[in-house]
Amino acid sequence: MTDPRLTVVVITHNRRPELLRTLDRLADLPERPPVIVTDNGSTDGTAEAVARRHPRVTLLRPGRNLGAIGRNLAVRQVRTPYVVFCDDDTWWDPGSPAGAADLLDRHPALACVTARIVVEPGGTEDPIVEELRTSPLTRPSWMPGPALGSFLAGASVLRTDAFRAAGGFHPRLWLGGEEELLAADLAASGWWLTYAEHLTVHHQASTVRDPTLRRAHGIRNTLWFTWLRRPVRPALRRTLFLARTVPRDTVSLRAFAEAAAALPWVLRERRVLPVEVEERFRLLEDAQRRSPARQYTG
Fold first, then answer.
1. Strands 35-39, 58-60: parallel, antiparallel or unpaired by DSSP?
2. How many Cβ atoms sit within 10 Å of the Cβ of residue 30?
3. pLDDT average, residue stretch 106-122
4. Rounded distance, CA 156 to CA 35, Å?
């Protein structure tokens, strides 16, 4: 029987083999969740292949690459209380989506549950898992796992209403660390995010990717988040730290230039986090600086 609490949302762009593998895995889940795929302007026959092999999947075709905003588009179609985010190169263990839904059922102040990530084909743990597991944040006594400052969109289940109320992913960030701003806005609205050790997502990274572009967007989006939400002094410290530590190359220079060029809209949209939420980000900074999973920012 279909778990009425869950809908899966996937975004994709020119990764037909990876997406079909993921959809095959999702079709085998005991939860039998409905699946919505946003095809971000693929030109490799992705949409046609999905229609043939998985006719029950709802396929959205905006006609261009929307990046993370493709998730926003899909969430508009969601009619369940929780949305399971999945990338086209990740898939959930059987029972893990339902396990996340159980946690959200039991804890009404929880907006997001992030699963343990296993890297395939080797079956090793993603380096970022240790960072999630050992989060330095103080958690409320009711919280079932470590409190998080952000989440991973390819490995998390979110409360649909909370996602919508927070505005979803920011349209300017596209892809690359786009979760941090949304997570901060959820926290500013009183929501909590947690890591669940007993839930598992598998990640077999696509070879069809541009790591240089992803690093540039990661640096740029980190700067934008910092300037949009952090108080002046922490924002300045974070900016100077990034300037000192990112690789000294044209990719980093382009990222800083793009970030600086956006200052007019950033200042218009700037909204500083509440004191208690800012304190969480201050605690996270030292851990993030030492994290091997965040090397895209140096």
1. parallel
2. 12
3. 97
4. 15
CB 32 within 8 A of CB 97: no
Amino acid at 206: S
Which residue did the predictor score with more confidence, 289 or 151? 151
With b for 16 or more beta-carbon neighbours within 10 A and e for fewer, the 208-224 pattern comes to eeeeeeebbbbbbbbbb
Helices (H), the chain: 16-27, 46-53, 69-75, 96-106, 128-133, 160-165, 179-188, 211-229, 232-245, 250-261, 263-269, 275-289
Q: What is the pLDDT of residue 211?
A: 76
- Convert the pLDDT of each residue in 31-60 to its tens digit: 999 999 999 999 999 999 999 999 999 999
Question: Shortest CA distance to 73 belongs to which of 21, 12, 5?
Answer: 12
- Angle formed at CA 159 by CA 154 and CA 163, multiple of 5 degrees: 75
Average pLDDT of the segment spanning 207-233: 92
Q: Which of 86, 73, 90, 88 is nearest to 168 (CA)?
A: 73
How high is the pLDDT of residue 297? 40
Strands (E), 55-147: 58-60, 82-87, 90-92, 110-119, 124-125
Token pair recorded at residue 34 = 């409905």
